[in-house]
Design goal:
about 675 residues, alpha/beta, 3-stranded antiparallel β-sheet, 14 strands, globular
């Protein structure tokens, strides 16, 4: 939200003076604009009712006044009046005034003011309860507003994300803001909400007290800070998962939005769960099926009651049902395609593509939320029974979180068990210490010690349950995307990474089929790519081979659907902020992960012998992203890729042995475990 001192008071040299030749009109115009400025100052102190009254009166008196002939006066008054009315809950009047302001700004060619009005219309959507529309508006403005306006925009975006329950995404939005010194009251309060939803009560109280000490009791900011502080002080004594979820729903309501008059789907679902804490998810959830705090309450209630199988059903929703809230790999519009082409060109020319990465992610979020009305989370189907029946000699492990703890749910030998692994920050640190030396090729001794530490946290509590069984693993964002085969307890053990149990049940097949149509692609770089593909051509004598300058993007995309097995060797890179811009350099420029959206046909198996190609699979909520996510979404059953750098030396021999095993009918997870796991490669899919 943003109220600015527009327009400023007149001076004798102002162009407005020429519009007011009459001395009395000039004096009255100055008086009116002084009242406007005073109203805006009141708004900055959180006195929105007084602001709305002053601006409404000024607006009426300015109609027909010579001062209003100045280009900026009337649209400036209307945009500030519209936002003040929004914050007072008078939505129809706010919309009328904001749309009139936008019409005047267009007519008078005031592009910056038009963007600010659009931002205020986004706030109106947010306070009316349409967070997806607000998110689309705010992301559409991220690269169009000047830097001095972006702090308020990032705060508004963070608040809209919190309304959807996307706490970590809101934290990222706040961190990305171009902060220029002291934060506004609104920024402090939105950060306090984010801290409270993370369970950080101490910092919540510190932030709210900073606000309370800066404003009087008549300020909206003071009242909101007091309410948040009380919630933070009380929540520490709240033990019930349902009670915590109710508090989270209350915190997520936009700060100045009116209290909901009725009980929405999330509240009704929590009422049902409160009465039946062992209830599994099902059609009774209705519109709350994708609400993260309802799902977490169901998961934690089941764990408290010792119902591990029911907890597994809830954990399945924790990631797979987030699709309505976050863009998946299939988001593709003319805007995203154009930005992807510009990113590709920047890589070819050696230019810094950082700004394009952020713009593409904003375009993806904008497109996803503009289509929000067409998205619905599917009704959940039970998975535990079918999973236990289908696993055979395998074990399924779902990593999840509950009440600040990392938890593993293990399905094996006809039963589901739950094991607490420890506080989330400790587990996340252990995984980061494991991945960092591998990713940056640091001291081998340090890497071994870090791998031992991660294995102790992640796997030792489970070994008595899983024994030496092959594993099917569904991860969580706090784990990142580790090279699982490098963990000591998993060396040589077949392991398949999946988004969830439902995905594995849909995609798993009775046994592997030897590939008949094989495509081998060697990118121009590094040199080892050509050697690797030449070695594999001996394993698959009838394979189609594309090398160096013949390995063009269009040819590779066309050939993908006409192969059962594809092996692509080359130089890979992934920008940390956008896995869908993961790339492999080909003869005519990089192939991007987002290029794979909408493939008409897909191979059964794809092997990516490139650095970082396994990143983006499980390091955030929602559908897997990056090359692995895009390929799986396109229908590929199995993807073999590495979430860490691939060393050129030694990979050729390992890949040849892997493909010999694959051609002989060995299942991909087993072939990866024996030949590629120690090099960082993982088997994704089924």
């Amino acid at each position: 939200m943003s109220l600015r001192a527009q327009p400023s008071p007149l001076s004798p040299e102002s162009p407005l003076s020429a519009a007011c030749p009459d001395h009395h009109a000039l004096r009255s115009g100055r008086s009116l604009l002084a009242r406007v400025s005073h109203g805006i100052r009141l708004a900055q102190g959180g006195m929105f009712e007084q602001t709305a009254a002053l601006l409404d009166e000024a607006h009426r008196r300015l109609r027909g006044h010579p001062v209003a002939e100045s280009a900026t006066v009337m649209p400036g008054v209307l945009l500030n009046l519209g936002l003040a009315q929004t914050l007072c809950g008078r939505f129809p009047q706010a919309e009328e005034h904001l749309r009139e302001a936008r019409s005047l700004a267009q007519e008078r060619r005031l592009p910056l003011m038009g963007l600010v009005i659009d931002q205020n219309l986004g706030c109106l959507s947010l306070y009316r309860g349409d967070a997806p529309a607000a998110i689309a508006v705010f992301h559409g403005l991220t690269d169009r507003l000047p830097s001095q306006r972006r702090e308020a925009l990032h705060v508004d975006l963070a608040e809209a994300l919190l309304a959807e329950g996307l706490v970590e995404e809101a934290a990222t939005a706040l961190a990305d803001g171009p902060w220029a010194g002291g934060s506004s009251a609104n920024a402090l309060l939105v950060e306090a909400k984010m801290r409270l939803l993370r369970g950080d009560h101490r910092h919540t109280v510190e932030l709210t007290r900073r606000v309370r000490h800066s404003f009087g009791t008549g300020s909206l900011w003071y009242r909101l800070a007091t309410r948040l502080e009380r919630m933070a002080l009380c929540e520490g004594r709240t033990a019930s998962p349902v009670a915590r979820a109710r508090n989270a729903l209350a915190v997520r309501v936009p700060l100045a939005a009116p209290r909901p008059s009725g009980r929405g789907a999330a509240h009704l679902a929590l009422d049902t769960l409160d009465a039946h804490p062992r209830l599994a998810p099902g059609p009774w959830l209705a519109g709350a099926v994708s609400d993260p705090h309802v799902v977490r309450a169901g998961l934690e209630s089941a764990l408290l009651d010792g119902e591990a199988a029911t907890a597994l059903e809830w954990a399945e929703l924790a990631r797979t049902r987030a699709a309505p809230h976050v863009p998946g790999p299939g988001v593709r519009t003319p805007a995203t395609a154009s930005l992807a082409d510009r990113y590709r060109a920047a890589l070819v020319r050696g230019r810094d593509p950082h700004a394009l990465v952020r713009r593409l992610e904003s375009a993806r979020w904008q497109a996803h939320h503009e289509a929000a009305g067409a998205r619905r989370a599917p009704v959940p189907s039970p998975v535990a029974g079918a999973l236990l029946e289908r696993l055979g000699d395998r074990a399924f492990v779902r990593y999840t979180r509950a009440d600040g703890e990392a938890v593993a749910l293990v399905a094996a030998a006809g039963r589901v068990h739950a094991r607490v692994l420890g506080p989330l920050p400790r587990v996340a640190r252990a995984m980061a210490r494991f991945v960092h030396p591998v990713a940056f090729e640091q001291d081998a001794c340090e890497a071994r010690e870090a791998a031992d530490g991660a294995a102790r946290v992640l796997l030792e509590p489970l070994l008595a349950l899983v024994g030496d069984r092959p594993l099917v693993v569904a991860g969580d964002a706090y784990l990142g995307d580790p090279p699982w085969g490098m963990l000591p307890a998993l060396r040589g053990r077949p392991l398949t990474l999946v988004p969830g149990a439902g995905f594995w049940l849909e995609r798993s097949s009775p046994g592997p089929r030897p590939p008949e149509r094989v495509l081998l692609v060697a990118a121009p770089e590094p040199d080892g790519a050509a050697r690797e593909v030449a070695a594999l051509a001996g394993v698959y004598p009838g394979a189609r081979v594309l090398r160096a300058d013949r390995a063009l993007r269009s040819d590779v995309l066309d050939a993908l659907g006409r192969a059962d097995l594809v092996h692509l060797a080359g130089h890979g890179r992934v920008p940390g902020r956008s896995p869908m811009l993961a790339s492999v350099g080909l003869g005519d420029g990089p192939l991007l992960a987002c290029d794979l959206a909408g493939l008409p046909e897909a191979p059964d198996t794809v092997v990516l012998s490139t650095c970082w190609s396994g990143r983006g699979f499980a390091d955030r909520v929602g559908a897997p992203l990056g090359f692995t996510g895009a390929l799986l979404a396109a229908g590929v059953r199995t993807v073999v890729a590495s979430p860490v750098p691939v060393r050129d030396a030694g990979t050729v021999g390992a890949m040849r042995l892997f493909h010999r095993a694959l051609a002989a009918g060995v299942p991909a997870p087993e072939a990866v475990a024996v030949h590629l796991g120690r090099a960082g490669f993982c088997c994704f899919g089924a």
